[in-house]
Amino acid sequence: MKKFIIRLSIFLGIFLLVDKMFYPILMISPNKEVDRRLEEVIKGNINKDIVILGSSRGARDILAKQMEEDLGISCYNLSYLGSDVVFHEFILKSLLKFNKKPKLLILTIDDSVQFMKKSPLTFRYERLYPLIKYKYIHEELCNRNQKNKLLSDIFVLHKLNRYNFRFRKKHFSRLDSIKPNGSMPIRFQSKGREWNFVKNHVYNKEWESDERVKSFQNIQRICKEENIPLLIVSPPNFRDVNTLFQKRVKELCLPNVSQYWANPSIFDSVSDRKYFHDENHLVLRGSKIFTRKLSSFIRNESDILPVLQ
Prior knowledge:
It is a single chain. With 309 residues, the protein is α/β, with parallel strands linked by helices. It has helices at 2-20, 23-28, 37-42, 56-61, 64-71, 85-98, 125-128, 135-143, 149-154, 156-159, 210-225, 243-252, 284-300, 305-308, and strands at 50-53, 75-77, 104-108, 230-234, 258-261. β4 (230-234), α12 and β5 (258-261) form a beta-alpha-beta unit. It is globular and about 85 Å long.
């Protein structure tokens, strides 16, 4: 028994020693990322008058730099490709925890997939894993059952994920380049598949995820408590506005929440493809027009304008 205890102690000692050798990986992981926006948030460096939240439609379609110039106040885009509204709630809470609150929050929505259980949108855990050296991010992952708090407090290896072992410095591609103000415009149209102008007026509340609906309502509640004007924005798709989904969003919105619903008619022709990358996203020339229209709406919206002046 004594020999067993000695051997076990030696094994545990060696294991803990080897485990601590992975600590440098934990510390350098953030430096390998090209998208450093979340890290800047938790460092308290995103103190802007207007902040934009959303998925790829927010990232592609709203140009923060142009809006900054249009309105004469600072603006930053914290929209993440493929992210869901639960992730947007997390970003908002992080923003308010470490930075001064914005004068206006813009939240873009994704048509009928916004609240769906079966949706291509997700909580972007891979944006958190490279930052797990930060206590705030570590605790968030534990709270979301992605890590066991006790084990990850003891073992460095338990904190690590496969994303931490990608040692090469990452680089932007044509699809994910981030401008200094956080926007991710795209200049070219999607090739290799057909997409046509369609009418889409189908929606059923039974498709909804309770968690996603709750996060949408939580964002509104937080903005109300913090006295932050909230503007819900639906950028133009290459199809009609889904009136059933629009009605559902209005049902879920608090009375003081402004809304801006755009459709392809803001361009030269209702079905002019040249402004679209695909059926869901604008190319840069379309983003410039849409951002100008949105800035004009904000400038003339009586509930928002006094707060920004």
